[in-house]
Amino acid sequence: MIRPSQAIRLFHINWVLMRHGLDEVVLATHLFRPVRFLKYFSPWYWLREPASYGVRIRQALEDLGPIFVKFGQILSTRRDLLPDEIANELARLQDRVPPFPGTQARTIIEKAYGRPIEEVLAEFSESPLASASIAQVHSARLRSGRAVVVKVLRPGIEKTIRRDVGLLFTLARLAERYWKEGRRLRPIEVVQEYEKTILDELDLMREGANASQLRRNFLGSPMLYVPEIFWDYTRPSVLVMERISGTPVGDVQGLKRQGISMQMLGERGVEIFFTQVFRDNFFHADMHPGNIFVSPEGQYIAVDFGIMGTLTPEDQRYLAENLLAFFNRDYCRVAELHIESGWVPRQTTRVDELEAAIRTVCEPIFERPISEISFGNFLLRLFQTARRFDMEVQPQLVLLQKTLLNIEGLGRQLYPELDLWKTAKPYMERWVSEQLGPRAFLKRVRKTLPRLSERLPEIPELAHRVLSDAAHGRLKVSWNDADLDRLRNEVRRGDRRTAKMIGGGSMLISGALLVTLGPAASLLSGTLSGGLFAIGAGLGITGLATLLAPWMGRPD
Questions:
Q1: Is the pLDDT at 69 greater than 50, yes or no?
Q2: Once rounded to an integer, what is the mean pLDDT over residues 402-406?
Q3: Which end of the chain has fewer CB atoms surrounding its CB within 10 Å, N or C?
Q4: pLDDT of 310-350, one tens digit each?
Q5: Is there a contact between 67 and 198 (Cβ–Cβ < 8 Å)?
Q6: What pLDDT does residue 358 have?
Q7: Which of 23, 164, 286, 315 does the annotation list as catalytic?
Q8: Mean pLDDT, the chain, integer
Q9: 453 vs 220: which has the higher pLDDT
Q10: Quick one: which of 43, 46, 24, 42 has its CA closest to 33?
Q11: At what angle do helices 262-274 and 420-436 cross, to 10 degrees?
Q12: CB 400, CB 277: distance < 8 Å
């Protein structure tokens, strides 16, 4: 059930959309279609400012809060899916969200330090350098003379985020209960992953730790530079970091004027992504253009490390094997990996059918630069394939898929002629050979040898104990297996049915009635249309990530 506070929030979402002239978002639902003519009687329809559609979308997202702003940031990187006018406006959400007063920032900093800011910093500018959905950044100078930036959380931001995440959970539960795609798309688990991610972003100490780890991973690398964190000045609500200078990666013309190779930037972006995911298993998961700069030498400079991703060894291995099989056009192996990993149901999926479906979707995009790929059509066909084979969402891969969308969108802006497949394939082949070949075996042996040597003296005693227990009948074998448990339960149910039949009793077992209210737009019609917009924001364009999943690794 939707609580009163959540109902108020849904009403507020719809009210904001209509106030900014986005009546069609609300009135497009089945419930309101018969009364759409009423919009001509609303005051905001006639008194609204003559702003463009893109401006109205951006302003509405800004008013609705951080979750919606993040949704707009992700969409801004997908210029292949949006008209230029809308994409340009949404790009302003990357670092030009309306700021909060600098006096408030000063108050937050002084509260964190417990003393006046002049006693800590030599200089502090109350005019923000940049303002985003979670925090804003001010220039400052340490007493040592080092130029730094001070990142400050927005006041009251945690309460706002928890409120909207609670609304997402309510809508996800309704979707899972009533929408026929709910079980496969696993919306509750996806929202749980998102909640963990965005709440972690509210702790700037954690962000500082993320930055330090990423800095160590790329120390001395010509590809990526990560600024230094000044721990003596960092608190949960305040982060002090080395001030960097560079050209925003979205300023393509400015980069070209400096003579920086766009091809090099495109290829380095792909290599940085795969290095973070597979070599380090620690990747920057918020790589929209507002968080990336380029030095005059062509080195990427990253900022904003609140959202980082990792994979389990199993996810990492399956993803790597899937990608390599995909690059080699070995669709049979891709299909086998999907079944082996449980990404599609083993009992109902034939390898040859899945192989043919994957080949049909993927073959047309090979050996083409990004600029020639119809991304919208590709996503639509992938979605149809995923639904046909009952592929379930893998929430743990949402961040990775979101990051890949950002990387692909960035590559489209920088170097549309980039061949993503040829660029990535050599790196994947090298990684797989290192992880699965003889060198990987020797590496694992060296890693486990110290622990094994510690336990080696215990082995004779353990062997004697096992043999002694076996000789005296005290040895017990415990076998836990899901299939065995299911079989045991079936046998027990069969025994109960037999006993009831012998006793002369009978029972009429009725099947469950599956209630389906149609697509998601009609599932939560009326005021819930705004709520669905909230789900899109909260999931970080998970819908698009979902459609990419069949060839990226685990379906989402």
A1: yes
A2: 73
A3: N
A4: 888 888 888 888 888 888 888 898 888 888 877 788 888 88
A5: yes
A6: 85
A7: 286
A8: 75
A9: 220
A10: 24
A11: 30
A12: yes
Q: Where are the alpha helices (DSSP H) in 179-299?
A: 182-185, 187-200, 204-217, 252-257, 262-274
Known active-site residue 286? yes
The Cα–Cα gap between 325 and 303 comes to 33
Specify whether the backbone of 442 is left (phi greater than 0), alpha (psi in -120 to 50) or beta: alpha
If one counts the domains in the chain, the total is 1
The answer to whether position 348 is within a domain reads no
Residue 286 to residue 406: CA distance in whole angstroms: 8
Q: Which helix (H) or strand (E) holds 23?
A: helix 23-27
Helix (H, G, I), strand (E, B) or coil at 96: strand
Q: Is 352 exposed, middle or buried (0-12, 13-18, 19+ CB in 10 A)?
A: exposed
DSSP string, 306-322: S-EE---HHHHHHHHHH
Per DSSP, which regions of 59-176 are E strands? Answer: 123-131, 135-141, 147-153
| Any domain includes 71 | yes
Nearest to 103 by CA among 152, 160, 159, 142: 152
Residue-number span of the structural domain to which 59 is assigned = 4-98
- Alpha-carbon gap, residue 146 to 47, rounded angstroms: 51
DSSP 8-state code for residue 141? E
Domain-located, residue 119:
no
Q: For residue 26, what are the CA distances in angstroms to 20, 172, 394, 490, 525?
A: 12, 19, 30, 49, 9
Report whether pLDDT(66) > 50: yes
What are the distances in angstroms from CA 98 to CA 19, 89, 360, 408?
Answer: 18, 14, 46, 28
Residue 34: both structure tokens together:
């018969």
**Rounded Cα–Cα distance for residues 142 and 263 (Å):** 38
Residues 6+ apart with CB under 8 A from 289: 76, 77, 91, 94, 248, 249, 250, 410, 413
Stretch among 172-181, 295-304, 375-384, 458-467 having the lowest mean pLDDT: 375-384
Helices (H) and strands (E) in the chain, counts: 25, 10
Q: Could you say which DSSP state residue 235 is in?
A: B
Tell me which DSSP letter residue 504 carries.
T
Name 401's Cβ contacts closer than 8 Å, sequence gap at least 6. Answer: 545, 546, 548, 549, 552, 556
Residue 36 is predicted with a pLDDT of 58
Largest CA-CA distance found in the chain, in angstroms, rounded: 92
* Portion of the chain with pLDDT greater than 90, in percent: 24
pLDDT score recorded for residue 165: 81
Q: Is residue 74 part of a domain?
A: yes
Q: Estimate the crossing angle of helix 313-327 against helix 542-552, to 10 degrees.
A: 70
CA quadruple 359, 364, 369, 370: dihedral sign: negative
